[in-house]
C-alpha cells in the first residue's frame, strides 16, 4: 500500500493513495479510531453509516471515528485518504481557525460530503501533490507543513459545504450560522442523556420556542426531530455493529424504559429493533 505517515509522540497523520487494492484496508479496523477525509473522483461508491453515495464528480467525505465507513467500489482515477488523530489537529480546540465543527463533522443533518467545482478540484489536487512532496522531503518542518495543508483543506471545504447545504440567508448571517453549529455540537455531546428541546434550551440559556423559531428561519427540521434522529442513528449503529441487546442499547442511550425506546425506534424507523438488526445479520 502506498502510504505516507507522520508519527511523533501521540500525533499521527497519514495520506494514502486510494485504489481497488486499498479497499480492504480502508474498510478494516486499522483506521477506525482516526478522523478521516476521503477525496474520491467520479465513479466511486461509498457508504457512511447507513447512506450510500455514488460520486458523479470529485467529492470530499468527512468521517468521524464513531461513524462507519465502507468503500464499496472504486473509479478509474485514484483518490486520496487522509487519516489523523485529535492530538495532531483537534477541530474543537482550533475552532476559530477552521470553523468546521458542526458542519463538516458532527453536523445535525448527517451530511458528510462536499462536491468540488473544477476550480476547487484543481486547488485540492495541487494540495495533495504538495503533501506528497512534503512527505518525500521528510524535513524537520514536516509536521507544521502538513498541518497547514490540512487546515487549508478544511477551510476550503467548509466554505463549499455552507454553499451546498445551507441557505444564503444562513451563510450571510454569522450569528445564525454560529447557532446552527453550537446546537449541533451540543446534541453530539449530550444526546445520550438529554432528549428534549428544553434540555438544550437550558444549555443555550434561551426559551425552547426561541430554538424552534431559529430552526424555522434556518429551514431546518424541527429541533426535536434533530435530537431524536441523532439518537436513532446511534441506536442503528449499535444494533448493526455490536451484540448489545435492545434493552442494553436503550439504557446506553439514556432510556430507563426499554419498551418506550422500542416504540420510539419503531415510530422513527418503521421497524422494530430486532427486525432492523436481522437485516444486517
UniProtKB/TrEMBL annotation:
Domain HTH araC/xylS-type: from-to ranges: 181-279
Q: List the InterPro entries hit by this protein, alphabetically.
A: Homeodomain-like_sf, HTH_AraC
GO MF term list: DNA-binding transcription factor activity; sequence-specific DNA binding
- Stored Pfam families: HTH_18
Under Gene3D superfamilies, the record lists: Homeodomain-like
Q: Does the keyword Transcription apply?
A: yes
User: Which keywords fit this entry according to its UniProt record?
Assistant: DNA-binding, Transcription, Transcription regulation
Query: Which PANTHER family does UniProt cross-reference here?
Result: ARAC-FAMILY TRANSCRIPTIONAL REGULATOR, TRANSCRIPTIONAL REGULATORY PROTEIN
**The name this protein goes by in its record:** Helix-turn-helix domain-containing protein
- Native organism is Hymenobacter wooponensis
Q: What is the lineage of its organism?
A: Bacteria, Pseudomonadati, Bacteroidota, Cytophagia, Cytophagales
